[in-house]
Amino acid sequence: MLAPLPVRASAPMQRTLRVEASQFAYAPAVLEVNPGDTVTIELVSKDVVHGLYLDGYGVSVMADPGQTASLTFTADKAGSFRFRCNVTCGALHPFMIGKIQVGPNTWLIRAIALTVIAGLAMLVLRPKLAKPEAG
Amino acid sequence: MKRSELLSRILIISGILLVLAVPFAAQGTRAQGVIEIHGRMAETGGWNPSTFQAKAGVPIHLRLTSEDVMHGFAIGQSDTPVVDVLPGQMTEMTITFDKPGTYTFYCTRWCGPNHWRMRGKIEVSGDTLESPEPGTAPLYMNLNLEIDAAHPAVVTPVGIPDAQRGKQFSGLLPAAYQSPDYYRSQSPAQAFEDLRADPILVSLKDAEIWDLVAYVWQSNSTPEGVVEGKRLFAQNCAACHGETGGGNGVFSGKIQALAGKIPANFTDPALMLGAAPALLQGKMLRGGMGTGMPSWGPILTEQQTWDIISYLYTFQFKENIARWGK
Amino acid sequence: MRFELTRIPSVKTLLKNRWPQLLIWFAMLAGFLFAIQAGLFGTTVGNRNFGIVFVWIAWWAVLILVAVPFFGRGWCAVCPISLPGEWLQRGAIMAPPVKKPRWLNLRWPNKLRNIWLQNLTFTLVALFSSVILTTPKVTAIVLAAMFFLAIGMSLVFERRTFCRYICPVGGFIGLYAQAAPLELRVKDKQVCLTCKDKPCYNGTTVELRGSSQAGYGCPWDVFPGGLTKNTYCGLCMECLRTCPYDNIAVNARPFSADLAKPSTRMDEAFKAFIMLGAAMVYAGVFLGPWGTLKLAAYSVGTTAWSVYAVAFLGFIFVLLPASFLGAVWIGKVFSRVKTTLKKSFTALATALVPLGLMFWVAFSLSFVLTNAAYIVSSLSDPFGWGWNLFGGAAFPWQPMLTSVLVPLQTLVLVGGLLWTATTARKASLEVNISAVPVIVFSTAVTIAMLGLLL
Question: How near does any CA of chain B get to the CA of A58, in Å?
Answer without folding.
Answer: 22
